[in-house]
Design goal:
Length: 346
Amino acid sequence: MFDLLTTISNFRIPWRRAALSSATLLSVLAGLFLVCTAQSQYSVEVRTVDDGLPQNSVNAILQTRDGYIWMATNGGLARYDGVRFKTFEVGNSAGMTSNRLLSLCEDREGSLWIGTENQGLMRFEDGLFTSYPEVEDVKNRAVAGIIETREGGVWMATATALVRLKEQGKVRHVGITETSPNDPEQRMLTQAIQEAPWEVTMLAYSLMNQGARHRIFPATRRRGVGTLLMFVVRNLFSKAAYRHDIFARLVEQGHLDASILADGDPLGFLVAEGAAESITDAAYRYARHEQGVDVVLFGTGDKAHVKDNVDSILRPSLAPRIIERIHATFGHLTGVGLDRPGPVKK
């Protein structure tokens, strides 16, 4: 969730030595996928909130030496014994300071160290949670990663650490990026962008995913933070059949009115009467001219696409009436069009 483009800092806390057990595990937004091997045959089992996971966004997974699998989620800590989950949350576990967890590390004597998104560091030992509000470098901070040194120190990824490295001349520029499909509401970036040391941020924004217009751009403009946009154009804009399926699903879920499907392509108004060369052209132009946007990113292996994309980015803004319609129709949507690179079925 919290991807630092530059690393980290060293803080020494009196604690026991740590070692990580190895495990072949994979976490995804939709929950937890357990990958098991038996006679070279793989099977995949899915675990979600329906099975007892406290929240489907799994940010870190660790198998401790006693065999338990621990998961840091946006809704608390989960321990899995291969059959069922036991959950630890602020409401049921004394000493826990946050349910939004980012990182995990086991020390050599079995204590579990937990990095939070907004309340620094916690330790779980003998069934009890302990926090460290007296450690200024992690107090009320996001701890994105934790590792142990051979000497027994603990290294943690925090914004404060990067400020110090920059002051010492060891780091010249510092940026931050979100993992958009895992955090479509941009909770992490909304909080992080309010603090030093970020000079540039990479984030998702498109005419179907406009949340940053209210959440992020006002802060980046006020603080002078540069922006690089991802997910400006995805399959949603370039593949008509796939687009129809997405809009049908949004109507079914109650996010859009059914009338949007009545006149054919729901994005057809973007090219009607010569408003734009194509829907992808409109998508690039919409993002390019949004206040607070500095760089629009795209990737392609086709030279002709490169020229088309650059031409779109260099064209003038869409007409005000088109932009007003985009805002009125799609401005409330969150996380639409955050499909990862790769083929779609239609």
